[in-house]
Structures are given as C-alpha cells and as structure tokens.
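Example record used in the benchmark description.
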Amino acid sequence: MAETEPNAPDTLSFDGLPPLRTEDGELDPLFLDAISAAIEAADAPTVEALAADLHEADVGDIIEALSADERAPFVQLLGEHFDFAALTEVDETVRVQLIEELPPEAVAEGVRDLDSDDAVYILEDLDDEDQEEILAKLPAVDRMALRRSLDFPEETAGRRMQTDFIAVPPFWTAGQTIDYLRDQKDLPDEFYEVFVIDPGFRFLGAVALNRLLRAPRPTRMSDIMNDDRQRVLATDDQEDVARMFERYNLVSAAVVDESERLVGVITVDDVVDVIQAEAEEDIRALAGVGDEEISDSVFYTLRTRWVWLLFNMLTAFLASSVIGMFSGSISKMVALAVLMPIVASMGGNAATQTMTVTVRALATRDLDAHNVWRIFGRELSVGLLNGGSFALIVGSAAALWFQDPLLGGVIGAAMIVNLLSAATAGILIPLAFERLDIDPAVASGVFVTMVTDVVGFLAFLGLASWILLG
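Model output (structure tokens):
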C-alpha cells in the first residue's frame, strides 16, 4: 500500500490488496468495491495502489464495470498513472462520455503519449468541435499527423495506421541502419521491419528485422529489401486490409498514398481489432441491432431496434394475409391451424442457415461470379434432401397424429417446397443486396423470413384446400 503523504487524505484500510479477477476470469466484486470506496473517498493513493500497475485492457474492463458517475473521478485520481490506451478497450459510448467529462488539457496530454493509431481511434468518435478543442492543445507536429489520419474516411487503412515508422534510403548499409536504430531515442515502441524509400519518400520495399540483423554490415539495404512486400493504400477499406493480412500471414504492412509515398504502417494488432469489430458488426446487423453497444442508453437502444421490428411487423402482416386467404379451409379443418407453424418454422430455420453461410462467404470474398451457380446448386440440393427427409418425418407424424395419410402427404409436400424456397431465398436475397451495394448482413434477415413464411403458408394451406377440401 502506498504511504500517505503529510497533507494527503487518509487512505482506506484493506487486509492486503483484493485480487483483480476471480478464478473464472471475471472482475472480482471485492476489487470493484475497493475501487468504488476509494473513488467515493477521493483517495488517490489507494486508487493508484489498486490500478496504477494494471494492463490497459484490465483498466478498460474496470472503467466499463464502474458506474457512469465513477469513471471520470477514477481517471482523475489515477492522474499521470492512467494510460489513455485503456480507452481503446472500452465501448464507444463509454469512451465518448468519459472524454467529454475530462478536461481537454488532460485528454490532450494523455493522447500525446499514445501511438498515433490509438490516438485516432480515441478521437475519431468525438464531435468535430470536441476534436478541435483537444487537437488545439497538442504540439503542431502531433496535431498535423493526427489531423491527416482523421481526414481519411472512416474504416480505412488511413484511420488504423501508425504514422511512426522507420524509413531509410536504399544506399544505406545494414551497419548504418543498425547504428541508426541504436542511436535514435525517439523510435516507435514496437516495429517489425524497416522501410526503404527514395528521395521523394516513395515506398521501394521493406527489410524484416531478422533479415537486417543477419546481413553483413556492408550490405546495402536495396540488396536485402523485399520489393514485392505487400502495401496498402491509405484509402483501402480496413476489411480488405484484414483479408490481405490473413491471406499473406503479414505482421505489418506499409501504407502509401495515391502517389506511392509512404505515410504510415499498419500492424497485426490493429488488424485483429478490425477483424473483431467487423465480426461484431455483422453479428449485430444479422440481428437488426445496428451499431448498438451494451452500454448504450435505453432511448438509443430503442431507436436502433424499433425500425427493424417495424419491418418484421409489416412482413408478419403479409404472412397473416396469406393465412386469411384460407380462413375458410382452416375453419373446416382444425388440423391445418395446428400444423402450419411447423412448415413456416422449418423453412425459417433452413433459410437462416443458408443466409448465414452466404453472408459470411460474401464478407470473406469466397463467393463471387465464378462459383455462385455451383454454390446455388449445392444449396438447392441440400434443400431438396433436407426437405425430403423432413417431409417423411413430419408427414408420418401428422398422418399418425390425425389419422389422415393424405394430410401427412400434404404437409410433406409443403415441407419440400418451403425448404427449397428457403435455400433459394437464403442465397439469392443476400446476393441481390450485395449487387445493390446494400449490406446483406443488415437487410437479408427480414426478407428471407418473409419469403419462407409466405411460401410455407401458401404451399401448405393451398395444397390442403385443393387436395383435402376441394
């Protein structure tokens, strides 16, 4: 426990520091209670003793676990011990609210010590006015570098890149480069390769550190550089960059502008964050919850979900109107009302399976013009085989249940029709939205469900009206 200074408030007393996490990896309630008590008492020494030496990811978890009123005091009590990189580990809503509560001078000081990609990540979600207020308090060089990154479109390599990198001319030797790296005090905290540039700062190639250290000292950098090294444009979509890293097993890559001038470097830790963010975005989109975070307010959450629920309601009315067309048939044969949800439910689940595989394949660029019809044929075959097998199961069960073999045949036939329609809708609807430049993960679910509901009810009730009641 840190000692209390003569003029400092008394620190809280604990029998040793409580553990940060439980055996399950969750934050220990005793630890959070200790943090909250220290915040309430404005006890900076205790807060420092508890959290000053923690990893930024752990500090981020603590911030999210604290109440909204405790977060800013927690950061202020940590003072110079607070690493602003922890703000890259929290939800956007929490991050923006916390930054708005902190003095701009404190935020500017904290951002100044970060890697440029982390600084951009923290600033990009703020309003322009708040951004400018913080940037104005930074040194001119740092301010210009961050503004240049923020000028690139969102979700591009330019937003994710670090502007701190090592670049040398091609005529330098390996020995010169190594001596330069040893003598320089202002190097990036982590780097994996040295870039080679011409006098116009155009990217020529890269030399991995292991190759640099193995090369004889007199060897020119141009002789050991990899001029085929992958590079990305600053305006490239971050998802495309992530796919490139995955395809070529990259650890880092140079970022260039339209004139091939080197402007930054993107590293694998940033790409991991991109992959996670894109995956979360697709999962939320499939469920119709937009960019919702767990820390969002009730009204924001209501607004993001309401629109998709409205679409669902409209499509449900369409399915209900199909049922209404056969109200006379249903009134004559109650078994139809009992069995028709089975047809719609099986079709909906089958369509969701196909749609999920299709959306993922589109996102990873595994599905395109050269293989679309082969995949479509495969899904139709799966739909037909599943439809046939479940038609036999459900049809037999219905025939035994209601002592009517003809009814079993009708629901079996409807099952085959709906599972084929599910396979068709599950692949063609996402493809159509992709062609229209609409995110298929966002829009597909509602329309695929509509198709299977309408076709399922129409096939089952229509066949029943024609065969059983006609």
